[in-house]
Amino acid sequence: MEEADAREEYERLVEEIKRCQKCPLHAYRRNPVPGEGPLNARVMLVGEAPGRREDEQGRPFVGMAGRLLTSILEKVGLPRRTVYITNVVKCRPPGNRDPKPEEIQACLPYLLRQIRLIRPRVIVALGRISGKTLYEQAGLRWRGISRERGVPREARIAGVEVVLLATYHPAAAIYNPRLRPLLEEDLGKVPRLLGEHGGRRFRSLEDFFPS
What we know:
The chain has 211 residues and is α/β, with parallel strands linked by helices. The chain has a single domain (3-196), classed as 3-Layer(aba) Sandwich (Uracil-DNA Glycosylase, subunit E). Helix content is 43%, strand content 13%. It contains nine helices and five strands. The protein has a five-stranded mixed β-sheet with strand order 2-1-3-5-4, with helices on both faces. It starts with a helix and ends in a 14-residue tail after the last helix. The relative contact order is 0.18.
């Protein structure tokens, strides 16, 4: 797909997310959080759902967990501006509770469309909900975040061949600082995985921030 066509398709997707009323979460949101980053990113990071700061700003990972994630990405040589970041669920669950299965299923088509459009080479699942959801889409057995974290899996999701890597959610590393070195270790594997599995070159430093 040509870059202009991809951006047009992405803008349509963002508008659909903004108008979405497929599940009750739309009634609680201030702003939906579609995601942000280059549309030709080789790396996609997928969290579980927006938090309070994300709901206020309409952007993913801008609270404490986001600041930690950004610092680790810089440390391992993956500047945030070069990756695409989104969540499984695009609207904030009340009280930051876990998204319910029916909410995940209602929102999942948006994530799959993002994967088909961006065609990343590596997808990093941040946390157990994202990991379980993406493993299921890849037809892989999910044995829990502590057993699956850090293990690259070749997978096919939404028709796209990717390397799927699960790790802890940055929020978990804030609540339990002992997890931070493991999160850094896992994210530090991504540049090597890109080198091993090839993929498109990063062409632009322009981030896409939904208006």
